[in-house]
Amino acid sequence: MNKLTVRVADWHADNADLRRIREAVFIVEQGVPPELEWDADDVDAVHFLAFEGDFAVGASRLLPDGQIGRVSVLKDWRGLHIGELLMQATIAEAERRDLKQQKLTAQAHAVRFYERLGFRVASEEFLEAGIPHVEMVRDSA
């Protein structure tokens, strides 16, 4: 396995990789309708890409209000801590921007993953795109 890295992505320059990953994970694998996956927030978000060598295998985004989302890792690369690397980079950028609280909408099966990163559940379970989710928040130190 090549070295795993995460970097800030450019929505325009890196659009093909961002779309390839999110389409594979959310639209194809999880059945999220494309009109729910793509939104106007993408233009103003800070995007992140995770790479194995020079191949993009994961993505996430940070909105100006501290909302983290679209955390996705291609199926064949799961279990290699890529999601954790993406989240660490995203949280670090939020803190660098002095966003005292980070928020996210977690799929219910991923709650423990986010709890390990300092998030806590802040809502009852609800359905989003037909998938059980909960709101979670993390306060910066």
From TrEMBL:
Listed GO MF terms: acyltransferase activity
PROSITE patterns given in the database record: GNAT
Enzyme Commission code: 2.3.1.-
Record key words, sorted: Acyltransferase, Transferase
CDD domains, A to Z: NAT_SF
InterPro entries registered for this protein in UniProt: Bact_Acetyltransf (IPR050832), GNAT_dom (IPR000182)
Pfam family name, one: Acetyltransf_10
Domain N-acetyltransferase: 4-141
The protein's name in its UniProt record: GNAT family N-acetyltransferase
